[in-house]
């Protein structure tokens, strides 16, 4: 006898647990299976960004996660002679998404918070130590055979399934989906250590990329006393998971000696740039490392998977609860795959700077990077290297379409509620309108169009009016003119925003905004009255 849910998620890593939590928040029934009996206890990813934190903010986890995070330090690229050749850092405040753009984190601790949150959600079953050994389409849905550690098995059916089962994804392989190689494949050793507190001041205080042809390497300042070294393996050095301490200490002697730190984890990897040729096979989707693998040089590998989860979750909700066409789900790959390729290529470009092993070419690289800026080294803003989304469910050609909607601190008027925009105003479909550009009749029309989307009209007061006007929509005032400056830079007075914070379109007139909203509503399967379909 089989059991039925709305969505079956395979894999309980950061992508799978986040996707399942987002689906559960929307009232969908979810089953999540992971072949491991418990959380992997050692760090793998170490960097994340403001998009990840905004996603987790929407789950109400900001306060619980903060003890396990620390701001990401600037990255200094040091050339063959130790000279500074490149520098990356985050943009200064006010931060566009509210959160500082880049962070380091304790992955096991963060995953514990995420799993505890998921376990507390109604309508969610979490199966640990359970391996999905078969998954196929059946009778307008999917059917899965799940085997536990005792050899017992169960059958599950669902409307859709999402494989978040890692880079070696058995599901992707069983579906016969090949990977496109973005032409980056380098062996590296990753060593994590907990450094003695009195030794921390003697280590670099920034992230350092050692672009040295003898052995390229990276030093990462993690949270607390966690420090990471990533060292390129040389020809003949083994690529395996187990490195005895006596082989590690000589590699770390430049920075620490035995007694200075407790070695926490060491593992060798091939840093790949790979992306699945297809992200959908009927009712089965790929997400996270199952769909793509990104070298770590921009700390975007895990974040790519969280973006997948955010993009796919609201679309599954619209199909399963609100009558949207299954075709809406095709926009997942159309949007995410080009973005992953663009982001991965940016990471690979940084990796090629670091990984040059030829001494003459390394010297040429150093001279070229310095000559490009007249001998000085400017600071490159990390987020400027990431592309916007393109294609898919956007008003292509509309200024700002495919970019991320800013999140300032706001105050509602006249109630006086203050906080981050998403917390105060919600994070569904939103229409942002400059108050002085919105006629009463247009406000009524926008509210009517937003109702079947469970959306909200936000009226930006700049400057705040006293008393604030009455009428449809929520009046907000910014602490700093983040939204106002953003709209002005786009030459727009209105923005139409999707549930995943991606800007669907901007417009300079209310009529234009309403047209864009109608297009989005049609794709989202909006129905008059705003009532969801019954499960």
Low-confidence stretches: 528-535
> What's the CATH H-level homologous superfamily of the domain at 2-68 and 104-179 and 276-350?
FAD/NAD(P)-binding domain
**What form results from the Cα inertia axes?**
globular
Distance between the termini: 20 Å
What is the CATH C-level name of the domain at 2-68 and 104-179 and 276-350? Alpha Beta
Helix/strand/pairing category: alpha/beta
CATH topology of the domain at 2-68 and 104-179 and 276-350: FAD/NAD(P)-binding domain
Question: What value does the average pLDDT take?
Answer: 95
Side by side, the strands of the main sheet go: 19-16-12-15-14-13-5-6-20
Strand content: 25-35%
- What is the helix content? 25-40%
Question: What Rg do the Cα atoms give?
Answer: 24 Å
Largest sheet: 9 strands, mixed
User: How many helical elements?
Assistant: 13
Query: How does CATH name the architecture of the domain at 2-68 and 104-179 and 276-350?
Result: 3-Layer(bba) Sandwich
The count of strands amounts to 27
């Amino acid at each position: 006898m089989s059991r039925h849910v709305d969505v079956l998620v395979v894999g309980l890593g950061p992508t799978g647990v986040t996707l399942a939590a987002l689906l559960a928040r929307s009232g969908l029934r979810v089953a999540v299976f992971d072949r491991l009996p418990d959380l992997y206890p050692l760090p793998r990813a170490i960097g994340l960004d403001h998009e990840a934190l905004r996603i987790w903010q929407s789950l109400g986890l900001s306060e619980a996660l903060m003890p396990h995070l620390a701001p990401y330090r600037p990255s200094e690229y040091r050339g063959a002679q130790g000279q500074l050749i490149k520098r990356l850092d985050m943009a200064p405040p006010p931060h566009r998404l509210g959160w500082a753009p880049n962070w380091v984190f304790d992955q096991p601790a963060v995953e514990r918070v995420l799993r505890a949150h998921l376990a507390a959600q109604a309508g969610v079953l979490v199966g640990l130590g359970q391996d999905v050994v078969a998954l196929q389409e059946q009778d307008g849905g999917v059917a899965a055979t799940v085997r536990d550690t005792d050899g017992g098995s169960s059958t599950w059916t669902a409307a859709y399934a999402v494989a978040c089962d890692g880079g070696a994804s058995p599901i992707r392989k069983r579906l016969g989906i090949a990977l496109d190689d973005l032409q980056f494949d380098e062996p590296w050793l990753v060593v994590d250590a907990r450094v003695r507190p009195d030794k921390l001041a003697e280590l670099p205080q920034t992230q350092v990329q050692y672009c040295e042809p003898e052995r390229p390497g990276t030093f990462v300042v993690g949270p607390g006393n966690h420090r990471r070294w990533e060292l390129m393996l040389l020809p003949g050095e083994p690529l395996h998971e187990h490195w005895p301490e006596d082989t590690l200490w000589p590699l770390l002697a430049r920075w620490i000696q035995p007694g200075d730190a407790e070695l926490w984890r060491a593992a060798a990897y091939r840093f790949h740039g790979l992306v699945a040729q297809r992200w959908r096979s009927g009712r089965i989707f790929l997400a996270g490392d199952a769909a793509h693998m990104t070298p770590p040089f921009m700390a975007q590998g895990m974040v790519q998977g969280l973006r997948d989860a955010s993009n796919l979750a609201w679309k599954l909700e619209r199909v399963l609860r609100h009558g949207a066409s299954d075709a809406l789900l095709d926009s997942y790959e159309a949007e995410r795959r080009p973005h992953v390729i663009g982001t991965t290529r940016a990471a690979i470009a940084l990796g090629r700077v670091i990984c040059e092993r030829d001494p003459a070419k390394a010297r040429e690289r150093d001279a070229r990077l310095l000559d490009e800026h007249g001998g000085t080294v400017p600071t490159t803003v990390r987020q400027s290297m990431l592309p916007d989304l393109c294609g898919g469910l956007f008003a292509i050609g509309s200024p700002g379409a495919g970019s991320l909607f800013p999140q300032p601190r706001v105050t509602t008027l006249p109630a006086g509620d203050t906080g981050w925009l998403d917390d105060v105003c919600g994070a569904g479909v939103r229409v942002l309108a400059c108050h002085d550009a919105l006629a009463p009749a247009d406000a009524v029309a926008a509210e009517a169009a937003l109702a079947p989307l469970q959306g909200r009209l936000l009226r930006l007061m700049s400057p705040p009016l006293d008393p604030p006007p009455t009428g449809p929509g929520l009046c907000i005032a910014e602490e700093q003119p983040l939204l106002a400056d953003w709209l002005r830079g786009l030459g727009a007075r209105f923005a139409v925003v999707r549930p995943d914070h991606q800007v669907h379109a901007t417009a300079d007139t209310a009529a234009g905004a309403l047209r864009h909203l109608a297009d989005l509503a049609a794709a989202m399967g909006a129905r008059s009255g705003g009532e969801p379909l019954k499960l």
